[in-house]
Amino acid sequence: MKRYLLIWFIVLPILLVMVPAALVHFFSPGGEVAEPAHVPASAPGNQVTQELSSTSIKVYRTEKKVVETLPLETYITGVVAAEMPAEFELEALKAQALAARTYIVRRLNEGKFDDVPEGGQVLDTVRHQVYMDEGQRRERWKDQYEWKNQRITQAVKETAGIVLTYNGEPIDATFFSTSNGFTENSDEYWEKPIPYLKSVASPWDIQSPRYEETVIKSTAELEKDLGVKLVQEASTNGAWYRIERTTTGNRVGKISIGGKEFTGREFREKLNLNSSSFTMELKGSQVFITTKGYGHGVGMSQWGANGMAKNGKNAEQIVKYFYQGINLQDYTRILQV
């Protein structure tokens, strides 16, 4: 009898452990541990990250005139390093990584590369996205390379595989340096309405060194660049130009000068101004043009993103503020190549 009791005391604990485990195994779907349904953008090391090396980007190196094929995340690292100061807040750098990754994934999906020579998919200049390879970063940053590169790499890794989408498609994730205090509606600069590119306030940009600048041009230069003859009209109390329309983002929508009309964008591009937010003053034979902001003003302001990050906002909050109504999504579920 004692022998049976001894066996029972040995077997019972084993059964108490094995039976529940067996039930969990047999009644779980497939008998395997389920993967999490959502991987947040701030979670590094997820399974998707391991698949990214299979996606490559063909970058046309403008100076070398060759195409370099790079892993996607290596390319994103070089873009973030070139497009945003490494000194910026980590969450701002992560927002930049999300925008840069979205830009190239959208481009890959569209499959239109006829603006890139030699079989490349993207240029390494401001026409698309600026890209710096490791050698260029070492040369630019010198003894600060290690900490700056580590910071950029961290921002890219912590957003790996995530892009910004609207209705399930990667967005046109435009960005620029500095606003005049507001971003711009897409249709008021490019004449193309895009639902997620709406004007929002960006008061943080006042901290940017490019927030306000004044350039001086001679009247002769101005007339040549615009193809006009400056006149002071009595009908407008001696004014030599007139703002016909301002935009939602407080930029020049349309301007009349020398008998011609220009959109704010046309005027900015003809005179190579920092922004289409400007005022002008005529002093003798010189024109003083004061701009506010730096860039086209549509999408995410980089200095605005940095200001939001300093105020405690994370990357997801930043991109959802500048790109209205978007979602964050695993790029492998939407990439069509």
TrEMBL record:
Coiled coil spans: none
One Pfam family, short name: SpoIID
Start and end residues of each Sporulation stage II protein D amidase enhancer LytB N-terminal domain: 61-166
GO CC, alphabetical: outer membrane-bounded periplasmic space
Gene Ontology biological-process entries: sporulation resulting in formation of a cellular spore
InterPro entries: Bact_Sporulation_Assoc, SpoIID/LytB, SpoIID/LytB_N, Spore_II_D_firmicutes
Source taxon at top rank: Bacteria
Entries under PANTHER family matching the protein: AMIDASE ENHANCER, N-ACETYLMURAMOYL-L-ALANINE AMIDASE-RELATED
Protein name: Stage II sporulation protein D
Upper classification of the organism: Bacteria, Bacillati, Bacillota, Bacilli, Bacillales
Gene assigned in the entry: spoIID
